[in-house]
Amino acid sequence: MTRQIATRFSFRSIERLAAPVDPHFQIALEKDQDIEARESLLDRVFGPERFQKTSEKLRVNQAPVSGLALVAKTTSGALLGTIRLWPIFAGQGRAALLLGPLAVCPEAKDGGVGRALMLQALARAKAQGHASILLVGDAAYYNRFGFERRFTDRLLLPGPVDRKRFLGRELIPGALFGAVGAVKPVRRQRFTAIAA
């Protein structure tokens, strides 16, 4: 049985779209020397309560997926933004990614940094062969990248969440069709075998 899924987002010309809109910043893989600046930015944007969020339970003692921890930096090396994707199960045995947090320095808020980080993360996740991404965030912002509530209707996070903010995105059509049950973290060595 073939099922077609309509979505407002397309990966056509993603390479062109994923290019930063501002030539004064670049997207790069996160490096060890970015950790302090990243943590400072996350504290500044989300505050100390970020560690109490339900999504954090899926990231504790985990590492982001290799090649999917990105930063946006000025040409002088100042950190403007960060995005990371984490290995999870979206229901029983269904490998997926958890996006977050996405954070942009308040001074660069309207400079296209968040958009560039999102497009790069989506393009890289798709290129690596990942099938879907879940997140908890503002639907008005994430809908433009193809994230929708309908993909998470039957999934449960390990704590309280505003269901309107629990969104999903299929990178491979049908990847979240029939997804039901608990969203759980994946141990790193196990995820590599599933994704391969």
Provide a descriptive summary of the structure in words.
The chain has 196 residues and is of the alpha+beta class. The protein contains six helices and nine strands; from the N terminus they run αβααββββαβαβββα. The protein has helices spanning 14-17, 35-46, 54-57, 113-127, 139-142, 188-195; strands at residues 25-29, 69-74, 79-90, 95-99, 103-104, 132-136, 155-156, 166-170, 181-185. A hairpin with a 4-residue loop joins strand 2 and strand 3. The longest helix has 15 residues, at 113-127.
Biggest pleated sheet: 9 strands, mixed
> What's the shape?
globular
Question: Radius of gyration, rounded?
Answer: 16 Å
N-to-C order of helices and strands: HEHHEEEEHEHEEEH
The helix/strand class is alpha+beta
CATH architecture: 3-Layer(aba) Sandwich
What would you give as the CATH superfamily?
Answer: Gcn5-related N-acetyltransferase (GNAT)
Counting H and I runs of at least 4 residues, what is the number of helices? 6
Average pLDDT value? 85
Taking pLDDT < 50 over at least 5 consecutive residues as the criterion, the unreliable ranges are 1-21, 190-196
CATH C-level category: Alpha Beta
- Beta percentage is 15-25%
**CATH overall fold name:** Aminopeptidase
Distance between the termini: 25 Å
Structure summary, number of beta strands: 9
